[in-house]
Amino acid sequence: GENVEQHPSTLSVQEGDSAVIKCTYSDSASNYFPWYKQELGKRPQLIIDIRSNVGEKKDQRIAVTLNKTAKHFSLHITETQPEDSAVYFCAASTTGGFKTIFGAGTRLFVKA
Amino acid sequence: ETGVTQSPTHLIKTRGQQVTLRCSSQSGHNTVSWYQQALGQGPQFIFQYYREEENGRGNFPPRFSGLQFPNYSSELNVNALELDDSALYLCASSSARGKNIQYFGAGTRLSVL
User: Fold this and answer.
1) CA A28 to CA B71: how far, in whole Å?
2) Contacts of A42 (CB under 8 A, 6+ apart)
3) Out of B2, B43, B100, whose CB is closest to A96?
4) Whether the predicted pLDDT of B104 surpasses 90
5) For A73-99, what is the mean pLDDT?
6) Which is nearest to A72 in space by CA: A55, A89, A95, A60?
7) Residue A99 to residue B48, Cβ atoms within 8 A
8) Which residues 6+ apart lie within 8 Å of B77 measured at CB?
9) How many other β-carbons are positioned within 10 Å of the β-carbon of residue B93?
10) A92-106, B26-40, B52-66: which has the minimum mean pLDDT?
11) d(CA B73, CA B17)
12) Nearest one of B41, B80, B43 to B58, comparing CA atoms
């Protein structure tokens, strides 16, 4: 079946450093790739997304890249801050958000 | 505040019982998806409802069922509860006009004893 693999499962960085989280998807029909941030005990919050007709998207300190040929997409956070500490999930879905498949999550620790 | 609300916030049931969870979608959203999130894992897709009909289903047994109402709110029903059903249940609403971006509710934490 379809799946999304996410690495690493845990990531620890110093404040101000960059963090990179990588995902691989299996369903070639996937064309929408959102990233969610989930703080402890809270709901997943969309932080950035990318669609298959775009290779890269940036929003301030956050960027996402997509390689459809390799079925890879990545989240890049620059100038990390302690408030970036959370669990980050990548996901893949087809048009309409039908059957969105999530990765297992990456727990990011940003040390002050 | 995203506008997606879920009730109840917490629930404790015993094995074999039945449970109903509720979700009110964000205004203007006609699609609701349900997810199960076990501790330390990513959300797992249960099913999606669009205009009161099931629009797709993940790998969950038939004892997981749902409904969507004319106002697009939704229910998740789980029969014959098992210990492994203990999890956070999330709903997310979306719409084509909103580019199908999903907004999550805060979830219902279900504990099965």
Assistant:
1) 34
2) B106
3) B100
4) yes
5) 91
6) A55
7) yes
8) B18, B19, B20, B21, B64, B65, B66, B67
9) 29
10) A92-106
11) 23
12) B43
What's the one-letter identity of residue B95? Answer: S
Q: Which residues of A52-75 are buried (b: 16+ CB within 10 A; e: fewer)?
A: beeeeeeeeebbbbbeeeebebbb
CB contact under 8 A, A102 and B96: no
pLDDT grade, residue A78 (50/70/90)?
very high
> Are residues B102 and A46, on separate chains, in Cβ contact within 8 Å?
yes
Residues with Cβ within 8 Å of A107's Cβ and at least 6 positions away in sequence, in order, are A9, A10, A11, A86, A87
Q: Worst-scoring range by mean pLDDT, A11-15, A51-55, B69-73?
A: A51-55
Could you identify the residue written with the tokens 């797992």?
B44
Task: Count Cα atoms within 13 angstroms, Cβ side, for B7.
Answer: 3
User: B93 at the A interface (CB within 8 A)?
Assistant: no
Give percent of chain A above pLDDT 90: 81
Q: How far apart are CA B4 and CA B91, in angstroms?
A: 8
Quick one: average pLDDT of B28-54?
Answer: 92
Q: Quick count: other Cβ atoms within 10 Å of Cβ A76?
A: 17
Structure tokens at A84: 């970036």
